[in-house]
């Protein structure tokens, strides 16, 4: 007599769902784009630029728009390219870096990367534009303090000479 033993291996399958907030994907993309040669800035538009002019921020998500699905991501960027650099090459590098980094960190497929080149500048022009009002106030305060200290020192010297 042959006994039929029905042995089922039960896998304990844990159910759940992994979801990424848009800002997570935006941050991954913003940080990854730091290494793109010829990309001076990802631009967030007038209000974002106004905020950046008022205070110093390190917000890497500015100017990065994403649509995140369960398995796929679409990306829209507005960029400032460096003068005399090949913009189509910059675009290709942006697509590769975004696709590689998002896939590496999330297993999501980047299906679309749209880039709107809104300006072309030299590095010097971009650096000058990045100086915020906060930086200018700090510089003016330091300059005023130095001038005041010099004046106080000169007055002290005059007072000591009179005595």
UniProtKB/TrEMBL annotation:
Q: Which InterPro entries match?
A: Asp23
Which parts of this chain are annotated as the region Disordered? 129-163
> Where is this chain compositionally biased, Basic and acidic residues type?
152-163
- Polar residues bias: start-end ranges: 135-151
**Top-rank lineage group of the source organism:** Bacteria
UniProt lists the family membership as follows: Belongs to the asp23 family.
**Protein name from the UniProt record:** Stress response regulator gls24 homolog
